[in-house]
Amino acid sequence: MAEQSHDVLTKERSCVFEGRVEDALQCKKLGAEAQKSREFVKAVEYYDRALYHVEFDEGTWSFELMDKHRDAVNAVRLPVYLNLAACYLDESLMDNAKVHEYCELALDLDTENVKALYRKGIAYLRQNDLDSASFVLREAVQLQPHDKAIRVAIAELKQKLSVAKKVDKEKWGGWLNKHEDERSLTQDSDTPKEEVKKATASIEKAAKKPQTKETEKESKRGLPPTSATSATSATSTNNSWWTLALAVLVLASAIAFYMQM
């Protein structure tokens, strides 16, 4: 048996079409036995060799083979593609890219192949691509609504979607809280603006020269200001300049504080 297996793996393609199909079927059978025994590496070897025997160049496939020949080849290829996808789903060989590759090849031959859709959906679940998994598994369950394996996969999908929704809620909820805090800080930063307004008003008020009652009376009579009035006026002017200087200082401090926000 071991020698026969080795011969199958090393045998070259036959020149006769029927011989090539027969050799491919023999490799497929040995691959299925190895897969059943969970010898997935050996199973993949046999399946790859089966595809080798039914591989044709584009010219031969399109112009030399008849429809019945192409059908015979595809009858070998389809189950081999599906079995290779199943092997690469196993944890010992896990390769999601290979699963997608062989499932796509199977779907090219049979667009409604439930096994290909299911295995592709499982690969998407393992990649945590929940949208793609949902799309593919929904197609599969529509074709076979009572398939237990598909139902289990959909239950797993729903659980993952629920967790993802919860994570998104926490994530965006935190973002909204942060946004509210930032808006609150922005509102608080209006205080320096008010201080700037007040300081500006103080400067404008200080810039206006105050006029005492005595100065007002003397100006009405056309008399020069008296010494007392002049002193009062000088004191007022002095105070005005101090007020102006203080206001400028407050304004500068407020602007500096505001620019640092």
From TrEMBL:
Region (Disordered): 181-234
Keywords: Membrane, Phosphoprotein, Repeat, TPR repeat, Transmembrane, Transmembrane helix
Segment forming the signal sequence: none
Transmembrane region(s): 241-259
Gene3D superfamilies cross-referenced by the UniProt entry: Tetratricopeptide repeat domain (1.25.40.10)
Biased composition (Basic and acidic residues): 181-198, 205-221
InterPro entries (alphabetical): FKBP4/5/8-like, TPR-like_helical_dom_sf, TPR_2, TPR_rpt
Origin organism lineage: Eukaryota, Sar, Stramenopiles, Oomycota, Saprolegniomycetes
PANTHER family per record: PEPTIDYLPROLYL ISOMERASE (PTHR46512)
TPR repeat coordinates: 114-147
Organism whose genome encodes this protein: Thraustotheca clavata
Protein name as it appears in the record: Uncharacterized protein
GO terms under cellular component: cytosol; endomembrane system; membrane; mitochondrial envelope
GO molecular function, one term: protein folding chaperone
